[in-house]
Automatic annotation (TrEMBL), chains A, B:
Record CDD domains: PaaI_thioesterase
Compartments, as annotated in UniProt: Cell projection, Ruffle membrane; Cytoplasm; Membrane
Organism: Actimicrobium antarcticum
Gene3D superfamilies to which the protein is assigned, alphabetical: Hotdog Thioesterase (3.10.129.10)
Source taxonomy: Bacteria, Pseudomonadati, Pseudomonadota, Betaproteobacteria, Burkholderiales
Catalyses which reaction(s): (9Z)-octadecenoyl-CoA + H2O = (9Z)-octadecenoate + CoA + H(+); decanoyl-CoA + H2O = decanoate + CoA + H(+); hexadecanoyl-CoA + H2O = hexadecanoate + CoA + H(+); (5Z,8Z,11Z,14Z)-eicosatetraenoyl-CoA + H2O = (5Z,8Z,11Z,14Z)-eicosatetraenoate + CoA + H(+)
Listed name of the protein: Acyl-coenzyme A thioesterase THEM4
Major enzyme class: hydrolase
Length: 157, 157
């Protein structure tokens, strides 16, 4: 089973958070798990907020890219299309909200889980949790929007 | 004039976003500019969302750490204390919201500006803009909270 990000067209596969072609980036991999989506990510030692805990910017970044990936996958599902069919769906973030509930341990393998709250036209709203050692440490909500033409990137048709 | 982050106690100066002791991190530097606070940051080529544009997780991270730094500085100001006096103030993020208004160019020097919206007990709310080439590309709001004891880090008294 391929991750959602393996289907991103090559010209939009360089994102630091989720692009498979960004060798310096996080290269997250997101999959369906029933009606939810799941990404696992192991923070590196330097991703610390303070010794022992993960910095909030990484949490935000994981929620962001997990959610835009989920939005794309949800749009394919809603049209009953496989993710390798054309034209591709690719989303950008309209807004991101993160509630930091508890400190997130740095040593734990993080589980990011997304649920599609709403699909409305070109927008998909995704709610996401970050879990470490069985405890939800952060909750996010992303309004993802199909990539506007203003990005000036030609999408393969 | 020192940046806010240069006053962070050593045991809380390792944050990937703002810690002066994290050699792998962004090491942002934030200063007062009248009643606003300002950070400048140059994204690196691999911080891309797609070719030419900055990834949203970096924007979120910059807003986050700029705002917690602003919260600390604002708390010192509200008590009419210099930032090198003890006990220190150090804030964590309770919640973060980012509205992505336009794509943020990767080549531009970013200017992050913060305004203190409210100080209430242990909470400080900071609103922040990210500007590239004179255009506001993102707006953020952070609810920063004085570091709770649950972080288990002894603060120098």
């Amino acid at each position: 089973m391929n991750a959602f990000q393996e289907y991103y067209p090559e010209n939009v596969a360089h994102c630091f958070g989720c692009g498979r072609l960004n060798s310096d980036g996080h290269q997250i991999k997101t999959f369906w798990d029933g009606d939810e989506t799941v990404t696992h990510f192991q923070p590196l030692p330097f991703h610390m907020a303070m010794p022992g805990f993960t910095y909030g910017g990484l949490i935000a970044s994981l929620i962001d890219c997990h959610s835009t990936g989920t939005a794309a996958a949800a749009m394919y599902r809603s049209e009953d299309r496989a993710m390798d069919t054309l034209p591709p769906f690719r989303f950008v973030t309209g807004s991101l909200r993160v509630d930091y509930l508890k400190p997130t341990p740095l040593a734990a393998l993080l589980e990011i889980r997304g649920t599609v709250k709403e699909i409305k036209g070109r927008k998909v709203i995704v709610t996401t949790t970050v879990t470490a050692d069985g405890v939800i440490t952060a909750r996010g909500e992303v309004v993802a929007v199909q990539m506007p033409d203003s990005f000036g990137i030609a999408m393969p048709a």
